[in-house]
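pinging the channel bc i need a second pair of eyes. not urgent but kinda urgent?? the chain im working w is below, pasted from the shared doc
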Amino acid sequence: MTEYKIQAGEYTATITAHAGALRELRHRGRDLIVPFPEGGPIPDYRGIVAAPWPNRIADGRYTFDGAEHEVPVNETDRGNALHGLVFPLDWDVESQDESSVTLFCTPEPTAGYPHTVRIGVEYRLSGGGLHSRVTASNLGAGAAPYGVCPHPYLVAGPAPLDEWILELPAGEFLEVTPDRLLPKETRTVEGHGFDFRSPRAIGDTEIDHAFTDIAFDGGGQARVLVRDPGGTGVGMVWDSTCRWLQIHTADKQPPAPNRLGLAVEPMTCPPDAFNSGVDLIRLEPGSTHEASWSIFAT
């Protein structure tokens, strides 16, 4: 499997051509994300770019501009199409230097997604961390539905995830059906176990939900911070292009490894946006959409 290693300051990263995925990110040799083994399959979509939709499409079916479409259901136990079309692909390199690499892919149009959308991802390291930017360009003749998110599992330090301190600046979360994790309605976090606006330990709380009503600062940035009780930590920052944020505590049933990291996924739209239309991007012919985020050590 082709890989690209980049370095800047005290940060190193490894990116795979397969899925354009972030396989490793380290600061002073410490993992900031849950890595996956070289040359093998990517477990749990770790580090991928989820496009042209993030999260789920119920039954893999949706209607756009009056036409019905069906994409493959790959979350078979829940009957959903999960995390888009580009993660199974091998991406080509556009440019590379010591501290950055840019990859791209253009999935073939299908009956389910009859659009020609070129997806590019830039990974760039600096002394301040890893900066990622995803660019989607509509090369086709018709408008295309679109959404995107990254899929890293952050690692605060060596303590169990239950002991990590989470700071999450979101005032609402999307309640979902327990069996299929499909949207029901937004609810306030006030008085709920999902209220992490003030930093506190995650404890035994299980989360696999989208959050919104995100607090962006004066510069238009929002951030999640996760700290280990031993003093290390990791953060993620993004701008208002992503008004939604999926958080997942990576809960698994034995013998699978449980709660290895905290998935933090800034999303341009919520789950099943191809059906609800909520914050769905309409990518017109010849137009380009950009979304960006950064991961850094604390």
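so Helices lie at 273-276. and The chain is about 0% helix and 45% strand. — does that match what u expected or am i reading it wrong
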